[in-house]
Amino acid sequence: MKQPFHPVIGIIGGGQLGKMLIESAMSWNVQYNVIDPDPNASCKAYAKTFINSDLKDKEAIFKLAQISDILTYEIEHVNTEALLELEKQGKIIIPSPKILSIIQDKGLQKQFYIDNGLPTANFQLVQKNKDWKEALSHINGEKVVAKLCKGGYDGKGVAIVNRSEILSGNFPFDEPSIIEEFVSECREIAVLVGSNGIETITWPCVEMHFDPTLNLVDMLFSPANLDQETENKACNIAIAAIKALNGKGIFAVELFITPSGDILINEIAPRPHNSGHHTIEACVTSQYEQLNRILLNLPLGNTDLVKPAVMINLIGPEMVSGNYKLTGLETAMDIPGFYLHLYKKEETRPGRKMGHYTVMGDSIETARTNALKIKNVLKISAL
Q1: Are 364 and 223 in contact (CB under 8 A)?
Q2: Is residue 31 part of a domain?
Q3: DSSP helix/strand/coil, 174
Q4: How far is CA 362 from CA 203, 305, 307, in A?
Q5: Global pTM?
Q6: Domain count, the chain
Q7: DSSP code for 145
């Protein structure tokens, strides 16, 4: 098959984000190669070639590059040095690993915001345990947020702690970290940004609710409950951040809105993101189709919202590991506007993202009411 989409796309990481990227272009006959350390990765069944290897394995990444025309990644924890070397050799990698080298390190990421005049919460870098108390002296508030500079994901590597704990010598992490001011009573939103290197566009803002225990997204809805001025301001900050990165690809810019109306950048993900899952059904062009358009050098697609939507993650419950079943599905399927996505994960475990569902409605109130009805019945449980 040579036409119309002859380039083969290589994906570093074979999880659910890669799976949904592939699914979005199945009707186009696009071919993908995938590398992942899990022999049963979500993407395996869809890959032209599947390389079962660690994402830091330079030899495996070079092999993926050799058999693929374009590379992208669905996770940040990869061998950036190998990708920088490949890019220097002329390999097309979207987004550029230069961006990834900033995003991978939360200390570098936060300093990037400061250097480029982008609003973010006050922070201090902590290199060693002896630095915690000194760093704390520059941070206001009883509650503070500690984050590992490298390696955190899905709420892991993030801790909300009391000042008194640090002063008593109970340090959150013993690796390089940042400590930042806790933004109390804030709303958390996300702006998805797509850029082909020339044109930069956004989707309507998303408002997120987090699981207080797991510290990951439990539910989101779009459109966010924002006035037009705040929506425009958030989108402009997100676009400014991606332009400062010289970004090409799909980016999720997570933001805090403070009680006083200030908008602060929390983090940026240089890939499709949990906050954009609803776009598969709820927007004219999903985040996944948009990334395929960018990878294949096609025009950017329309990002308008088709209908208001709520997305809820299906997360592995506590005390359940191994084989599982989904209960309440018949009830959920009977509710209009329900769309289910399962991630081909053979086993569940506490806190693991097993899938998500989106509920669309004529109004955000209708979508949310129906989504919460489904949440009460649709459960992952042990076989």
Answers
A1: yes
A2: yes
A3: coil
A4: 19, 12, 6
A5: 0.94
A6: 3
A7: E
Asked if residue 3 belongs to a domain, the reply is no
Count of residues making up the chain: 383
Encode pLDDT of 123-151 as tens digits: 999 998 888 988 999 999 999 999 999 88
- Paired tokens of 27: 């009707």
CA angle, corner 22, sides to 248 and 101, nearest 5?
35
Collapse the DSSP code of 210 into the 3-class scheme (helix H, G, I; strand E, B; otherwise coil) and give the result. Answer: strand
Looking at the fold, whether 50 and 73 belong to one and the same domain comes out as: yes
Record the tokens describing residue 364, joined without a space.
């955000």
List, for residues 309-350, the tens digit of each pLDDT value.
999 999 999 989 999 999 999 999 999 999 999 999 999 999
CA separation for the pair 24, 4 (Å, rounded): 16
> 104-110: which pairs have CB atoms within 8 A and are 24 or more residues apart?
104/76, 104/77, 104/80, 104/150, 105/149, 105/150, 106/147, 106/148, 106/149, 106/150, 106/152, 106/177, 106/178, 106/267, 107/149, 107/176, 107/178, 108/149, 109/267, 109/268, 110/178, 110/180
Residue tagged 């070079």 (tokens):
62
Q: At what angle do helices 287-295 and 16-24 cross, to 10 degrees?
A: 70
- The structure tokens listed for 130 are 């002896």
Q: Specify the CATH number for the domain of residue 140.
A: 3.30.1490.20
